[in-house]
């Protein structure tokens, strides 16, 4: 059985990255895409199960794994609230022939790409402009004006990472961005299989 491949998606909030990734996973089962299962130090919510949505670790367990260099990438979002990607879990998924999808922040995306090099395809989903991103975030009506300004400032910073990705997909028209993403993924899979 062929080992799986790695797809890294990063983007500023509001770029449409999650919409594109969900579409790829639902509409293209032939790609055999599976999310990497992250680890977190937060408690399970609702019906979440260990090893399904996340691996739930205590903050102490998480710190121990950081010390042991067991993460591809991790972040402490708030004090004692960690999220990260375990190397061993990704390897298990690849060995099972799964093509592993990472939906991560820009720093995580850059780190995973550095670790896997040519074995991974990294895609940066970018809004056509900061003004368009502002329009989308306002249109969502889920954030306060202050939260929107914070997201836009963060987005401008995150967009400086775009050149470190293999490809930039500008999501101006969603259907075109989906088609371009699918083409990049298919081309990458063909090239890796040669």
Task: Please tell me about this protein's structure.
This protein has 194 residues and is α/β, with parallel strands linked by helices. It is 44% helix and 23% strand. It has seven helices and nine strands. It has helices at residues 17-27, 59-67, 87-95, 106-116, 130-140, 145-159, 174-193; strands spanning 6-10, 33-35, 38-40, 54-56, 71-78, 81-86, 99-103, 120-126, 167-170. A hairpin with a 2-residue loop joins β5 (71-78) and β6 (81-86). The protein is globular. The relative contact order is 0.21.
Structural class: alpha/beta
Oligomer: single chain
Q: Tell me the overall shape.
A: globular
What's the helix count? 7
The residue-averaged pLDDT reads 93
Q: How many β-strand runs?
A: 9
Largest sheet: 5 strands, parallel
End-to-end Cα distance, whole Å, is 15 Å
Low-confidence stretches: none
């Amino acid at each position: 059985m062929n080992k799986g491949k790695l797809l890294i998606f990063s983007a500023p909030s509001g770029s449409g990255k999650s919409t594109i990734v969900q579409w790829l996973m639902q509409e293209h089962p032939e790609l055999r895409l599976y999310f990497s299962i992250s680890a977190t130090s937060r408690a399970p919510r609702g019906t979440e199960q260990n090893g399904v949505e996340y691996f739930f670790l205590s903050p102490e367990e998480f710190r121990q794994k950081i010390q042991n260099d067991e993460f591809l990438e991790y972040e402490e979002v708030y004090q004692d609230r960690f999220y990260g990607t375990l190397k061993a879990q990704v390897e298990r998924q690849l060995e099972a022939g799964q093509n592993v999808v990472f939906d991560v922040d820009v720093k995580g995306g850059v780190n995973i790409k550095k670790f896997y090099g040519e074995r991974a395809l990294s895609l940066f989903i970018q809004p056509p402009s900061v003004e368009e991103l502002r329009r989308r975030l306002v249109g969502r009506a889920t954030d306060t004006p202050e939260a929107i300004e914070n997201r836009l400032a963060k987005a401008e910073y995150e967009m400086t990472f775009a050149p470190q990705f293999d490809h930039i997909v500008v999501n101006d028209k969603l259907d075109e961005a989906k088609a371009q993403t699918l083409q990049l993924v298919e081309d990458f899979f063909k090239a890796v299989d040669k």
